[in-house]
Design goal:
It contains four helices and no strands. It is an all-alpha fold and 142 residues long.
């Protein structure tokens, strides 16, 4: 699977799982009800979807210019860290506002989720590539 279809399936699966996990995580870390944390997770997901599309397009453009093709462990780690790092910068202010906590508390909550999401992103990408195949940008020329 390639192109826009690959990206839509990737984002849809990734975010559906992420909304469920993040809702429980925000509720547990903030001591607030799941009904209050879930909309924050949906908002974070909308932001993440936009960032995901932008980041993955930029990553694949960079990847297509690399002499070494394929997705090594190092390349997968760089992908996960780049994505999550950008997301932290966008989500901490939202978390602080929504949960009415300090930026420091929001950062700590977000870092707790980042630890989970770094592992989740790495594993999800690996499994996704195994099930759906590698994107054209990482394939060796025929």
């Amino acid at each position: 699977m390639q192109g826009i279809k690959r990206k839509v399936v990737y984002v849809g699966l990734y975010e559906a799982i992420a909304i469920v996990v993040a809702s429980f995580g925000f509720a547990a870390m903030s001591g607030q009800e799941l009904s209050h944390a879930a909309p924050l997770s949906v908002a974070a997901s909308v932001i993440a979807v936009g960032w995901n599309l932008i980041f993955n397009n930029l990553f694949e453009m960079w990847e297509s210019r690399q002499a070494v093709k394929g997705r090594s462990v190092g390349r997968r780690v760089a992908h996960a860290m780049g994505f999550e790092g950008g997301l932290v910068l966008m989500l901490v202010p939202l978390v602080a506002w929504w949960l009415d906590v300090s930026l420091w508390a929001a950062l700590l909550m977000d870092l707790g989720l980042v630890v989970f999401f770094l592992v989740y992103t790495f594993v999800f990408n690996w499994v996704f590539d195994a099930v759906f195949g590698l994107p054209a940008s990482s394939l060796k020329p025929a």
